[in-house]
Amino acid sequence: MMAWGISENAAPKEKLKSEMGDYLGGLNSTGKIDYETYSNIYDFTMGMLDRMYELGKKES
């Protein structure tokens, strides 16, 4: 699945972050989570994806 607005040439990490952001935005827009929850999860997951990416680079 290609996230809306993300370039096909974007780095793999940025594609994953965009996909996660779209998923969370969908949960917020359908009322499954409120905006405060969306913001907290978004901030946490974007940092976590960055850390996971760095860890993956070190371990490979």
Automatic annotation (TrEMBL):
UniProt superkingdom: Bacteria
Name of protein: Uncharacterized protein
Organism: Cytobacillus praedii
